[in-house]
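Attaching the record inline, Q. Sequence:
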Amino acid sequence: AIQPMGVLTRWEGDRLAALFPSVATDTAILTLERALGALSTERYPLPQGSTTRVTFSAGVTEAEEGVTVE
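Structure, as predicted:
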């Protein structure tokens, strides 16, 4: 789960961005690892009656103060 300190937003197409302002890089990594662990253990129903699992891949980078995404 994304902590109250973060924001999950659509980046483009099927890509999402998790933003953690003023959070240490190691804390952001830990948060994403926890989210992946929680998401990948669940089974989600499909319309035809079967189920599937969901996973994701992520990378973490740190931006200097004042840097924008443009």
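Strands lie at 7-12, 15-19, 44-45, 51-52. The first strand starts at residue 7 and ends at 12.

More tomorrow.
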